[in-house]
Amino acid sequence: MPVVLRKIQFIKLAVVLIAAIFAVFGLHKFSANYEKVSASASGPTPSHTGAPNESNCTACHSDFPVNSGTGSVSISNISANYLPGQQIPITVTTSQADAVVYGFQLTAVDGLGRRVGTYNLPTQTPAQTQVVVGIVNGIQRSYVEHTVAGIVPSMFGSKSWTFNWTAPAQRVGKVSFYVSGNAANGDGSTSGDYIYTSVNSTLSGTAISNFDADDKSDVAVFRPSNGYWYSLNSTNGSFQAIPFGTSGDKVVAGDYDGDGKSDYAVWRPSTGYWYVLKSSGGSLNVQFGASGDVPVVGDYDGDLKSDFAVYRPSNNFWYYLKSSDGAFVFTQFGTTNDKTAQGDYDGDGKTDIAVFRPSVSSWYINRSRDGFIGFQFGASNDTPVPADYDGDGKTDIAVFRPSNGGWYLQRSRDGFIGVAFGISIDKPVPADYDGDGKSDIAVFRDGFWYILRSSDGSFSAVNFGISGDIPVPSGYISQ
């Protein structure tokens, strides 16, 4: 680039920055509901990220429709899953080749639209980012946005901001990050600027039966007659057929390598071996358990990886091998004829040992953080179907009643609900098929999947599999 042209660009940038600073102090206005504000180089007022019940910056910069330019805004480094208290570095980048100054605003919310976690900003002189707080529909949210010193491009054509987000002390289910970016021409007015929006999310654990890492559970089966796995990826509808296993194997799919994808896995009762085909590459063969054991897949040490684990009805012991450090752990919990019902009931990121006792219709849960609890819920012939049905990051007590096709859920946040869905021959297969962070009520019936989506209450039927197939999500259900 010629030296003269570079000087002209830098002079223009300096003039624009001075004009922008004047706009901050001379033109900035507020309104009670934050809906209409004028442009501000020092950062917009809260609630302009495009999150639910929010506007985006086109309320002010209205020349062009949102996302209509040649640029973009992106959120980088969001991991597929988070641990309670985990600190995650986030980078926001607003780009457009012909823009002169750039801005952004980001917020993190749970399924109820509440603010989630805290932000830790880098030490900079002068500061390029700031945290502000706003109210949306009576709910407080916090935001990270640019400052007046943070609008100058990192390089011509784009600007990036980096900060840390710290996850809450306990799971809250799906966390969504909404961001709005402004690629401005820097003329001191609101005209001629482009607004972009984007959203990214992280879950409190890999969705079960999620073989394509899109935060949605996939319709998938294991066919004992030929040892094949068949899955229908929710990302693009593509079909996969993977030979892995043999007749008599138990389905134990889980995220054993912690990459956010479910791994094909079986447990072989005749030998006590676990066979895992890792989505990140390679395989695992581990002997753990004995004939007569019940595999109880879960993340017992809270490292976002599935652990090898079994329940032994002959002595009522639970045995698991921690993936974090390889330690062997065992504990006695339960009695004869109990049904396993493991899950994260206290939201601390660790699977809790739990059983459903049909003889007294009671649940007994040994929570890893909050200790023991007993709860009467269900009837003697019910099938326990624990899952997170309300999206708060905690497993809910729930049963499926084959005699009447009823689902009865005692949700940890939203309370009790009963839903008629299914018939006596159905296999319950609750999972998050729509990716909203909540398990959906669903059943498998001789090659057909019937799903009640929690996101909008819609019903879907999918023909996938044949009679005799084992639906993958049923590996988490005590049959």
Polypeptide structure, described:
This protein folds into 2 domains: 3-202, Sandwich (Immunoglobulin-like); 219-476, YVTN repeat-like/Quinoprotein amine dehydrogenase (Methylamine Dehydrogenase, Chain H). The protein is built from 1 helix and 33 strands. The chain has one helix at 3-27; strands spanning 72-76, 87-95, 101-109, 118-120, 129-136, 139-146, 158-166, 175-184, 194-202, 219-223, 228-232, 239-243, 250-251, 264-268, 273-277, 283-287, 294-295, 308-312, 317-321, 328-332, 339-340, 353-357, 362-367, 371-376, 383-384, 397-401, 406-411, 415-420, 427-428, 441-445, 448-452, 459-463, 470-471. It has a 5-stranded antiparallel beta sheet. The longest helix is centred in the first third of the chain and has 25 residues, at 3-27. The chain is elongated, with a radius of gyration of 26 Å.
Provide the descriptors you would attach to this structure in a database record:
479 residues, 5-stranded antiparallel sheet, disordered N terminus, elongated, 33 strands, Immunoglobulin-like, mainly beta, single chain, 1 helix, 4-stranded antiparallel sheet, 2 domains, Methylamine Dehydrogenase, Chain H, 5% helix
